[in-house]
Write a structure and sequence with these properties.
Blueprint lengths: L18 H6 L3 H12 L4 H22 L22
């Protein structure tokens, strides 16, 4: 399956995004909607192996380099947020 690399347009017009982009950029609702749509035509493990894992690996690598921070809302229990830097 080809991966679209487009991001939402800066002009406010909504461009189509893909699941890896949504994951890498913390777009929770869009990721859920895209996953539901993909599951209609794609095996779940193909989505996991071909899209989810690579996107999470990329986001994790960017976090380790300090290039990306995750919001405190990513953790339902605020006790796990100590030391988390928000940018």
């Amino acid at each position: 399956m080809a991966r679209k690399k487009t991001a939402p347009a800066a002009t406010g017009a909504k461009a189509e995004i893909d699941l890896p982009y949504a994951i890498e950029n913390g777009l929770k609702k869009e990721a859920a909607d895209l996953t539901a749509k993909l599951l209609q035509e794609t095996e779940a493990m193909n989505i996991v192996n071909d899209m989810l894992i690579p996107a999470l690996d990329k986001a994790g690598a960017e976090f380790e380099k300090g290039a990306k921070a995750f919001p405190a809302t990513a953790y339902p229990d605020s006790r796990h947020c100590t030391g988390l830097l928000l940018r």
